[in-house]
Each structure stands twice: as C-alpha cells, then as structure tokens.
Amino acid sequence: MKTKENIEQIITHFEKNTAAKISKLEMKQFHFSSSKNAFWFAFGKYGVSVVVISILAFSGWLLNRMDKKKEQDIEHISYLLEKSPVQEKKLNDTIAIRLITLFPAKDLQSSLAGKNYVYSKDCNCIEIPLIFLESYSSK
Fold it and tell me: Which keywords does this Swiss-Prot/TrEMBL entry list (predicted)?
C-alpha cells in the first residue's frame, strides 16, 4: 500500500510541476510604440555585428578575387614580354639597350597583344595592347 501512495504522490508532484512549467511557457505578446522599436527588438543584440561581419567577409572575398585577376594579367603580360623577340643594340661604348620590335596595326581590333602598336592622334601617342579582356554586356 505504501508503494501505491508513493506512486500517487509522485504523479501529483509531477502534475504540479508540469502545470507550473506550462504556465511559464505561455506565449507573451509584445506591443511596441513604433515600428522602429519593433525592428530593433527583432534584429536582436547581435544583428548589427552579424551584418558588419558579413559585409567585411564579402569585401575581403571581392578584394582577394580582384588581386588574383591582377596577378593573372601580370603573368600574361610577363609571358608576352618574355616570348617577344628582343634585340640588343649598342647606343655607345658604355650603354646597351634591349628592344622589343613591334609592328604597326590598322586599329586595335586587328592588333595582336605584344606584337603590334597603334598610333593614336587623340593623345599623339602609341598604344600597345598587352592583354584583351572579354566584357559581358547586356544587349
């Protein structure tokens, strides 16, 4: 009989504790005086730091990608310069010069990178294409 009373006592105690816990879990409604206050409450105390960290991570990724692209361009240009025919001429007894021979092209579209040059009347200069990049435009 004592065990039956113990079991009943345990069940009663369990029901009381469960009822107390359920009453604590009831949903509370929040009312805010402005939508700005509601936004900052929902954003939380870590929301600003998460946004800042995300922006910094994206900026770092973008800069890293740009640096890799520049490195690839420099490698391509260096390869062109290494493979171009280089001539060495003496200016006088003490000074020698290395030259890359380039040939004129009608325009930049018909030129070869590292092989041709185009005279520009706009700036009274010579333009030498080193690398051609594809640009994707929406048409």
Answer: Membrane, Transmembrane, Transmembrane helix
- State pTM to two decimals: 0.39
* Averaged pLDDT, 96-124: 81
- Helix and strand totals (H; E) in the chain: 3, 5
Burial of 77 (0-12, 13-18, 19+ CB in 10 A): middle
Q: What percent of the chain has pLDDT over 70?
A: 86
Q: Is 66 exposed, middle or buried (0-12, 13-18, 19+ CB in 10 A)?
A: exposed
Q: CA of 31: how far to CAs of 6, 27, 34, 42, in Å?
A: 46, 13, 9, 12
Residue 38's alpha-carbon distances to 25, 35, 43, 76, 127, in angstroms, are: 22, 5, 9, 55, 60
d(CA 40, CA 48): 10
